[in-house]
Protein 1
Amino acid sequence: MADAAVFEQVLAEEDARLAAANRGSADGPRLTGTGLPRLRGKQAPRGGWEQMPFLPWVLMCMAEERIFARADAEAERAEGDQTGAPNAGARWRTPPSPVAPTKKPAGHPRMKPAGNRGTTNFCPGCEGKHCVFSTKTPGSASQGKPGAVCSFCSAASLRAALETPRGRGNVTRSFKVFYSRKDEHGHVWTAVKERLEEWVPEEAEALTKKASQAKREKPRASRADLRERRAAATKDAWDACKKRRRAVTEEAAAPARKKYRAEVHAEQRRADITKAAQPEIMASACRRCKAKRPHIVPQPADVPEPLQGLSPEIVEALRPLDIDVGEEVRAGNGCYRKKVRMITFSWALQSVDSKIAALGARDVRRKARAARRYLLENPVDNEYHDYYERHNSFIVRHRDEPTAAEAKRPLHFIEEPGLETALWPHLYWKTSMCESFERLNRRRLQQLEAKKQWRGQQEDEEDAAATEAAEPEDNSSSEEGEDSAASSAEEEVAKEPRRSIKRSFQAKLLSPLLGYGSDFTLLQYVYDLHLWTDLGSKRNQADGMAMRLMMQGHPMSPYYWHDIKLGLFDLVKQLGYPQLYWTLAPWEPSFPYHQFLLDEMQKLLVTRTHLPAFEAMSIAHVMLQTCRNLLAGGGTQQGAKGWKRHLLSNHDPAIQEQVNNCVGFFTRVEYQDGSKKEGTQRYHGSGRPHVHALFWLRDMASTKLEASAAASLQLGPGMDVVAAFARGSQLDRSGESKWPVHPGASEYVADEGRLQLHHTEEDAEGGVRGCFIPVMDALRCHQDLQIAHGRYLLLKYVTKYVAKWSDSSYSEWMSDSASVTSLCRKVLVEYHPMEPEMTLQLTGATFRQWDFGTVMGGRRSVRVPRPSNQEQPGFVHQYMRSEWQREEMALLEYLRKSDAATGGIARWLRQRWEKDAAGQAAGVPLETFANAYTMQEEQIVAADYLWRLNDGYYGQWCLMHLPFRSLDGFQVAAVQDKVPFRYRWLATDARLPPPVRGYWRDPARIRADMEQEADTAAFIEDVVGFVGTQIAAIDRYLSGQLDRREEPAPAPKNRHQAGNQQEDFELEGKQAVLFRQVAQRVQRGMELQAAASDEEWDTRRAKVAEAAHRPIVCSGRPGTGKSTVLHRNVRATLEAGGSVLLALPTARLSNRTAEKFESQAQLVVDTAAAAFQFHKPEQETLYAINPSQANFERILRQWHAADQSPALVFLGDKYQLPGADPLRPWDSPAWKPATVQFVELTFVYRTQDESFLNMLDSLRTAMPTKLQLNQICRNHKAWNPGRGTSPIQRTLAACCAHTRRPSWWPQLGLAWHR
C-alpha cells in the first residue's frame, strides 16, 4: 500500500503538468481555438500548419481523450457495482458531488447525447415460424442488423458461425442461456436442440455438453486490490513509455505522454502475452555494439540538461557561423531535395550574444543563455568555446561591422575539428562525438594541439585568405604543406584502429536520439566531409596511380559499377541467361512505412519525403529483402537461412524442401534521375530509389507464375483493392505493355516454354505492365515484370549501368594534374546527388545498393595481369603453389572455389562437402569433391580485362583460361621468332594446346562469349572480323609465307604524321571506332534516301530505328584526333556521293576548314548560326539539319523532322570555347545516353611532352592554385626584343622534339629541328 500511495503522488504531479500543458505552458502543445496545435520549440512547416496534409496531433489528442473518458466511466461503474460507493481513487476526473452533477476536467470533450437510432430490427423467423431465440427474453424474436437472420433460424448462418472461433463462442453462450432457462422456456430449448440435430448433427452433442456445464464464477477483487492493480499497470505502462524514443527538442511533452498511454493501453487490450516483443534491440545482437571499437550511440539521457529542448531558433542563435548549402531545389512534384553546391561557412555578422538578445520571448532567451553558459563553462572535450572566441575576435577586429566577403571562410574550413559543436550543439555536445574528429588519425590529433597555440598569430592571414575565398574558387595554397584539404580522412596508420565517418554517422542515425536524420544541412555536411576526406586521402596516396582508379571503390565512380557489371557477366557464364527481369519502383505516399519511421515523422511533424535518411534506408532495405527472400528465397543461402515457400519456389513440396528453384539473382538500387523524361521537361529526377533485378530459375513451369503474376487490371473477385493500386501504378506512360495479347486465362505453355498471362487488347492499349500480385498487395507500388529471351533481358539490364553523369565528366573531375583543393572543390561543386543517394552512399556498409545471390552476397574483384608482367598479384602465386586443385583447373575456376586470404578451398565449398551425404558415404575426399563441383553462383569473379581490340587482352584471357604451373609455359619460341610483337598474345593463344587453340578460330564461340557480356551486334562483328584478319596474318607468319624481318615499314600514325597530309596514316583504337560508327550511320542514311518506293522506305526506316541510329557526341582534349577523324569521314562520304554540312562556331574557323577541301557541290562549310539559321523562327528552319542548350535541342528536333536519316555528329571540347548562353548543351535533358551516343578520345597525338600535358590539364579542367601558377610561369617569360632578349635555342629544340610540325610552319621559311 505504501508503494501505491507513493505512485499516486507521482501521478498527481503528472496531472498538474498535464493541466499546465492544457492551459498552454511551455512544456508542450495545446489546442488553439481553431483546432490547430501550437508547439513551442517547433518550427512550423512551410506554408503554415494549415498547409499540412494531415493534422496528426489534433487527431491524436481527440482520439485518446475519448478513449480515456470511456475507460474511466467503465472503471467507475465496475467499482460502484462491487462496493456500492463511488471510487475515490479514480484518475483524471473529479469525484461526484451529492449536490452538483459531476464536472469533467478541462481538456475532456463534451459527450453529445445519443440521437435517434432508428427502429429495432427483429429476426423474420424460418419457414413461416416466428423467431423465439432472443437471449435476453427467450420466447421473443432476436434482434440484429436490418434483413439479417439469426443463427438458429438459418442453417447457412449457423454453419458459418460455427466455422470461426468468434461465431462458435456466440453460439455456445446462447446455448448456455437457453439451457439455464429450459424450466421456464422449455419450448425454446427443445426447438434449439431439434434444429441443431437437423442442421449440424456432428456438432449437436458437443454443444449440448458445453451448455450443461456450469459457468465458472470469478472471485471478486476488493477495492484496494483493484486500485493496486491499476497503479501497477499504469506504472508498467509508464516504464514502457520511457524506453521509447523521445525527441531532443521536446522532452516529455504532454500530448506525447497521453498518446503513449493510449497506445500502451490499446496494446494491453489486444496483446498476446505468449509473444511479447522486446522494446529494444539488445546490445549483444548488434554487430556495431559488439565491435572492438564501437562508435558512440547517443541516448536521450546523455544530452546535458541545458541543451535539451532547444528550438531551431535557439540553435541558430548559438551558432557563431552561418551555413550555406544553396537554394532548396526539389522536383516539380515535391520529392527529395537536391544537393546544388558544396557546403560553405562564414562567420556570423552578429555576435552570439547579440543574436540571443534579439530572440522574442523571454523564456526562449533564458533557455538560450543557459545553453550558451553551459557550452562556455565546459570546454573539456568541446570546441564551442574556441569557435566562440574566434568569432568574437573577428567581430572586434572589424569594428562590429564586418562584410560578407570578410566573413567568408575558405573551403578547407570544412575539416576543422569539432566544427559540429558550434553548429549543432544539441546533437554534438562533445568533440569526440563529431564526424570531423572521427576523421583524424593519431598524427593529426597531435597537430591539432600544436595548431591551437599559433592560431591567434594567424588570424590576420586567415582573414586575408577568407577575402580571397569570397569568390567561388579557393586559391589558398598553404593547406598542401600542412596536410589539409582532406589529407587525412580514413588513412590507416600502423597499429591504429580504423576510423570511419560513415559508420560513425550511421550509428547516430540509428540511435534513439532524434534530429540526426531530419536536418538537410547536417546530412550534406557529413556527405561533403566524407567525400572531401576520401578524395584528399586518395589523392595524397596515389603515388603515380590515376585518380579514377584510386576512386573505383566509391559508389559515385563509373568504375565501381563497371566492376559490379563484370561480376554479373561471370554470373551469366555460370548459369546462362536470366529468365525474369523485374523492376520495383516505390511511391512514398502508398509505400508501407515501418512503425519507427511513422513515429519519428509524427514527433518531428514532417510528411513523407521530408525525412530522407530514414526513408531511403527503409525503402532500400525493403526492396532488397523483397528480391532476396520473398522472390528468390535467399539465393544460395538455402537451409536455415533460406526460405522454402517463396514466390519463385518449386510448388512440388517434395522438391521444395530440398533445393531452391531460384538458383541465382542480381539486384541493383538506382535513383530516378529524370533519364526517361521528355526532352521538353526541365525538372530533374525525383531521386526516388528503385530496384532492377534479374532471376535465374531451374524450372519455370514449377513456379506457377500464372497464379502469382498478372498483366491485366482484371484480377478477379475479391481483388478490388489490388486492382485499384494496379490501375494507378501499372499503366505505362508510352502505352507499351511488353506483353502479347492473350484474352484467355493465364497459363504456362510447356511445349513452347513460354508464360502467357491474361492480357486483353484493352490492357495492351493502356500499357499495363506485369506484376507480382502478392507484392502489389503488400508494397502498393509500380512493378515491371518481363519474361523474354535471356539475352534481351541481359542487354536491357546492362543499359541500366549508365552513370548519372558522363564518363567524360568523371575523367575530367579526376584530373591527376589538379591540386588536392582544386580536385575536391570541382567534384563537390559539380556533383549533384539527391538525398536518398547521399544517404545510401553514407550507409552503404549496411544498406548496400546492389546484391548478388552468392554465398557471401558479394563478388571477388581481380585485375587480370598478362603473363609477361614482372610482378604478378598474389592470387597467381597462390594458384601455382596450390596442391588441392587438379592440373586441368584453370585460374578462373580456382578463383571461384578458393579462399581469397589463404588460397585453400573456400569455406562454403567445405560446408557443401560436409552436407553431401552420398559423397560422405562413398568416402569422396574433399579435394575430389571441390574439383568436380559445378558452380551455381556460390562465388563470382569480376575479372577486369583490356579491350578486345588490344593484343594484351588475349594474353590476359590465356592466363585465366589455360591451366598452368609456371609462367614459362606461355613463352612459345615459334611465336617469339616468327611473329611481330603486335600479334604476340593472339599468336600465343593460337599455338597453345586445345581447346584454347581452336577457340579463337571459331567465330560462333567468340559470338556466344561476347553475347554473354552484353556486347552489341556491331561490336561483336568488329571483333570477329579483327580476330579473323589477325589469325590469317599470324598463320602466314608461322608458315613462312611472311617474314618478320622483311615486314614493310608501317604507315605513319598520328603522332608521327607531318604537315597536313591526313591520308597516309592509320587510325588507332577509339579513332577507328569513331570513324566506323560515323561511316555506318552515313551508309544507313544514304540507303534510306535511295529508297525507290514508300514500302521500301518504310522497311529501311525500320532497320535504321533498330540499329540505334543516334547522334554521336565526340569529345576530347586538344590533339586527340577529333578533326582528323572528321576529315577522313567527310572525304569518304563525298567519294560515296553523299552530302556533307560542316557547321563551325566561328567564321574564321569555317574559312580555314573550307581551304582544306576542294570546292564541291555536295560540301557546305559554314558557321553554325548561318547553317542552322538560329536567327529565324524554328518553324521556318525544319528543312535544314540544325551551342547553347536551346540550340542543341533545336538541332535535335530538326534532325527528328528529317526522319533521323542524316548522320549527326557533334565534336568539340567543352573546356575550350565558352558559350554566350549560361546554359550549355550538357545542361539539356536530352544530353543522356538514351538520346545520343558519347565517344571520348583520350590519347593525345599532337605532343608527347608530359610536363606540357600536365600543365594543360591543370589549367583546362581545374582551378590552379597560386603554387601551381608560380611553377607554370617560372622561366617562361615573354620575348621582349626591346630588352635584347630572344628565345633560347635549347627551348625551341625541346619544343620541336615533342611536337609535330604544323601545316603553317613552312610558310615562315624556318627549319623544323626534330
Protein 2
Amino acid sequence: MTKIKVDFSGKHKNYTRLSMDLKTYPLQNLSDVEQRRSEEDAQQQQQRVTGRLSLLARMSFKLFRRGSARCIGLLSAFVTILLCLYYISIGQPNPTPLSDSGSPTAAGLQRGVGPFGGGAITGITGFSVQQQQQQQQKKIHAAGIVSNQKRSSEQKAEEVPVEQEPVGADSHVEYARANWGDKCYVLLQSDTNITANEEHSRFDFQPEWMRSKEYWDRGFEERFDVQKKDKQRPPLKIIVVPHSHNDPGWLKTFTNYFQSDSRQILNLLVTKMQEYKDMTFIWSEISFLQLWWDQAHPTKQRALRRLVDSGRIEITTGGWVMTDEANVHIYPMLDQLIEGHQWLKNNLNVTPKVGWSIDPFGHGSTVPYLLSGANFEGAIIQRIHYAWKQWFARQQSGDFVWTPYWRTRGAVGAVGTDGAAGSLLTHNMPFDIYSIKGSCGPHPFICLNFDFRKIPGEYTEYSVKAQFITDDNVEEKAQLLLEQYARTASLFPHNVALIPVGDDFRYNKEREVDQQYQNYKKLIDHIMANRRLYNTDIRFGTPSDYFAAIRERMRGKSPGFPSFKGDFFVYSDIFSEGRPAYWSGYFTTRPFYKLLSSELEHNLRAAEILFTLAYNTARQARRESAIKIDEKNYEKIIHARRNLGLFQHHDAITGTSKAAVMRDYAMRLFESIQNMVKMQESSIEQLLQKGQPRHHGFIISEFERDNFNKLPRKMPIQMVSGDDSTSTGGGSSGAGAPSAGGSIGSFVLYNSLAQKRVEIVTLRVQHPNVKILNHEGVELKHIQINPVWNITEIYDMVLGTTTTGTIGRIRTSTRQYEVMFVAELEALSLSTYRVQVDEASYRRNIATIYCDDCHEGSASASATTPEGTTGATTNDFEVRAKPAGDIQLENPHMRLLFDEKSGFLKTVTRKNQRKELMKPMQCNIKFAAYRSAQFHSGAYLFKTDPEQSEAEKDVLEGYTDVRIIITSGPIASDVTVIYGPFLAHTVRIFNTRTHLDAAIYVENDIDFEPPPKNRETELFMRLITNIDNIAGAPLQKDPLKEPTDTGTIPELPVFYSDQNGFQYHERIKVPAIGIEGNYFPITSGAFIQDTRLRLTLLTTHAQGAASYEPGQLEVMLDRRTLYDDYRGMGEGVVDSHLTRHKFWLLVEDMPRGQHAAKPPGYQVPSMQGQMLANALRYPPNLYFLSSVEQPLSGLQDQVRLLPKGALPCDVHLTTLRTLSDPELQLFPSASALMVLHRQGFDCSVSAVGGRELGLDAVCPLSNGGLGPVQLGKLSLRTIEATSLTGLEQAKEKAKENFRIRSLAEVSLQPMEMRTFNLTFSDRS
C-alpha cells in the first residue's frame, strides 16, 4: 500500500518549541504602615479586653463576698468563657475597621442582620476590605440582602455612617483561603430510592392499554376501592388551578400571539378576578407579562399587583419563557430565569416559589437544580414517557424529591431529602396532557364533560359534549367529577389532587372566563355544602397550596417522599395506531438556528462581562462621556437578554415552530448578535485607553454578517504604513517596532474565560508575507500561512455547481490568506497583537498543499487577478499531486490514518511517553442517514422508515465528484474531503507543544441544498471504534418476573451524554425501543469508555447523540422531513441552511484498577475535556484596531481584567451581569450578579503523557479556593451570597455564606453553582 506521510518533521523540524511565557503573581504583603496599624489595632483590642476583665473581676468580688456557692460556680464558668474569648481575640487579626473613637464601625455591626443572620458586608475592594485614600464618611446600606441594591427613601433612612482609614488603593487585606479539599476529588453517585435508567430499562414499552391510551386498569380500580374503605386514609382534598398556557411563538410569532390572545387574557384576568373573589390563576411566561405591563393602564397594573400580593394570581417559575430542557445550554437557561425574576422583583416585588413546566418535551435534571438554587419550594412537570406515567401511578410515587446525580465522598445524610442542596420536591402530573380532557382523571371521555368553553362559532369535542351546571344536574355532575378527582388522588399516598383547568391560550374570551368560573363554582359550592357526605375539601387554589398541603400531610410519615435521580429523556407519547412516538427529532431539528443561539449566547456573555467592568471603571474614574455611552447602550443588552431568553422557549430552540415563526426568532437573534458585537467594541475601546477615553470607533469586528441565514464572513485585516499605524503604550519600541514605512495592522484578542488559555487563532490577511507579534512586541515563532479555498468560503465562489453532485475546479483565493498562530491569552484579558510585513522569512511558514485538481485553477485564477499580480496557487503555495495510497498525518502525540478513496479517518495510533507508537485504535468516521418514516418523523419526532429493509442509506453515493485536499504546515496539518456542495469534512491535528496536540479537530460544512433534494433524510456522523463500552453487569431484574437465562443477556452499549453543558448522564441502550428511543440530547459533548480508553466528542451546539452498537458513538447533524408528524406544527422541515459544525475529538487513558467501583462513581470529563468544551463554546473574539482615519495613542498593549490571577481551573465564570436600576430599569445600576460554576472533572483520565501536555502550565490544579480575586482596578462596596437568580439570601449551607469579606473565603463544592451580588463603590 502506498502511503503519503504528512507529519511535523522534515521540512518543519527545525522550528523552535513554543515557549510558555508564564508569569507568577505572588500575593502582596501588607506594607509597613499596614503592619503598624494592625499592631495598634491588636493593642487596642487587648486593652479593651483587659478593661473588661478588670470590671468583671470587681463584679465577681462582690458576688464572692455573698458566699453563694451557686455564684461561685457561675463565676467560674464566666471566667473560663472569657479567657477563651481573650485567647481567641489575641490569636487573630481584627478585620473590622475602627473609627477614631475605637468603636466598631457599621461594617462590623452589620453582620448578623437579616433572617439568616447575614446581611451586606461593607467596605470591600478587590474582593477584600476597602480602604479609601482619604478619610470620609459614607452611608452604607445596613438592611438584609436585596436583589439589586434598591435605593428607596425608606432604605436610605436606615443607612448608617461609616468611617474608613486611609490606605493605598493597591494594598489589600489577606484573608484565609477556603480549603476546597483534594485537588483530585472523587465524585460518587447519589443514593436515591429511584434511579431513572435502572427503572426505565425494565418497563414494558408495548402494554395492552396503548390503543386506548389509558393505563387505568383493573388493578388501579381495585386499589381505589380498597382505599375508599380505609378509615385511616386522610379525606380527599382537591385544589383546582385555572391556567392558560401561552407559547411565546409557535404557529404565530411572539408578537402576533400577544396581540391576538395573551393581552386579552391578562386584561380579562385583572378585570374578572375583581368580580370573582375566590377565583385563582397562575401565570408563567414573563415575556408576555412584561409586554402587557408596558402597555397596560396604571389601574390595571395596580389591580394585578393586588391580585399577586393576595396570592390569588401566582407567578410560577417566573422565567422569561418556559424553557426547553433538552437543547438549552446552562448559561441562557439561567439567564432567562434571572431576567424574569429580576423583572418581577422590580415591578411586582414578588419572588416565585413554585415551578410550572408542563409543555417541554421531556424533562431534565438541570431545571430542578436551578430552581432549588433559587429557593423554590417545588415544581410541577407534565410530559414524561407514558411508561413512567404508569410506573409512578402504580408506585404512588408521583411526588418525589429530584436529587442531583452526584455527591462528593462523605456527603451523606441530607442528600435526596426535601430541602437538601440542589434537591427539589417535584410533582408529576399523572395523566397524558395538561388540558382539561387529559388531566381531571384517568378517563378523558368523562373529563370532556367539564370543559365549559362554549364559544359561538367554535365546534370542538368539548363544546359539543359539555353541559352547563344547573340546580337540576349539579348533584349528578358533582358525583361524576368527584369520582375522577378521587381516582387521581388515589395515585398518591396523601390523597391530595392538583387539578389544572385550562389549555393553550385559554381564557382569551370573556365568555369562557364566565363559563369556566361559574360552572366550577357551582360544583365546588355544592360539594362543600355537602362536605360530610362527600368527605371532601375542594377549592380554587394554586400550586403553592398543593405543596403546602402535601407537606403537611406527609410530615412525620415514613417513608416520606421518595428520592429520584436521573431525567425523563426520551419523552414518548402514543401514535394513533397504538405505537410509541419518540420525541427525539427535535434534539437536532434546524441546527442552523441552534448555532445562531449559541453565537448570541457567546457574544452576550462576552459583552456582559466587558460592560460590567467598563461601566464601573468609568463610574469610579468619573469619566462622564463613557458613562453616557454605557447608559445609552445598556438597553441593547436588555433586549439581547430577552431575545436570547425568548429563543430558549420550548418551541423555539427546538425548531418546532412554523418556518415563518423561526425566521422571526432568527431576525431577533441576528439583531442582538450585531448589537452585542458593537457593545464589545465600545467596552474594549474604553478599557484599552488610559485615562479619559478620547478615541471612539477604532475597534472593528473581524466578522461581517450580511443576513441571519448566512454564515458570518471573516474579513481581512487592513494594513497601513508604519508611520500611520497604531501607537500603543509599549509596542512602538524595542523588538516589536515596525520598520519605517512598513505595513502593519493591529488586532485585539479578547479572552472571556477566567482561566489562561492557549488557542489556535486564525486571521485573514491580504498578503501571505506577514509575521505576527504579540503584545510585548515579540515575534511569534509558531505561525502558518494557509490558503483560503473557494469551497470553504462561500463568498469567494466563482465556478459554483456545474452538474448535480459535482463542483467546479477548486482554487485558492488570490485576495485572502489565512494566518494560523498559537496565542497565549491571560485570564479575562485584552491582548493587542500586530501583523507585519515579513519579506525575509515568511516562506518557511507557508503550508504545502497536496491536491490532484487544485493546480488546474492557476490559469483561470491568474486571469482574474488584478494587473501586476499573480495567482496565489503557483507562486505562494507549493501544490503537489496527491500520491496514491492511504493518507497519514502525524504529530508528537499520535498518527492518523485516512482512507485514500473516501478521505475519512480510519485509525488513531497514539504514542507513549517515549514517543513510540502504540497499538492502533480503530476510529472510523462514517457519514450516513436514516430514512424518515413519513408522517411519523418530523420536527418533533424521529422514526426510521419501517418499510425499508435497511434503516440507513448512503447519502454520499450520489456525489461522484469527490475531492481530497491535504494541507501540511509547521503547526497544523489536515485532510479535507469534499462531496459536492453537500459536505466538506475536515480533520486537523496540531503541533504546538501544548495540550491541543493530543486532540483532533473536526469540522463539517453541511448543505442539504434546496428541496426536494435529500428528502426524508436524517444525517449523522458516526465514530466506529474498538472501545468495549458494554454495561459492566446485567441490570437488576424485576423480582416479580421470572429469572432470565444469563447467557441470553444482550451486550448493551453505554455512553455518557452531557445535559445543558452542566452535568452528564449515563445512557444504557434499551433494545426494545429502537434507535429513536435511544437517541439523547447533548449540548456540549458525549463520551464512550471501557477499562482502557475513553473517546470524547465535544460540540458547539445542541444535537442528538446515540451509541446503538458497541464501540460506536454518533451525532445527528441535520434533518429534512417533508411531512408533518401530527404534533401540531402542521408542516414539514425543509428550510435547511448551510451549517458549520465544529467538534473536538479526544482519546484518553482510563485509570487502572477501577473495574468495580463501590460505591459507583459519577462520570465527568477530564480537565482537558472541560477546557476544550469551554473553548469551543466561548472562543476568543478577535477585533481589528482601525487607525485609518486618525492615529491612536495612549492605548494599553494588554489589559488584564483579573490582575491578581485567574480563577481555579474548574471554576467557570458563567456570567458577570449588570443589574438594572430598580427605579429606572433601562439604566444600569452599580450592582452585578457574578455566577460561578465549579465544573466537575476527573483528573484520573488523561491523554498519554498527560504531564507533557502543558496543562499545568496553562492552569495548575489547586485546592486553595478562589484566591485573591480582583476585577480590574475596581473597588467593591459589598459582596452578598444570594440565591441563583439574585433575589434572596442563599440558603444557609455554611457559615461563610453570610460572612463574606472576600471571595477567597468562598467555598464551592464540585459541580456546584452559586451567585454573588457585587456592588461596586462609587470611587476607586
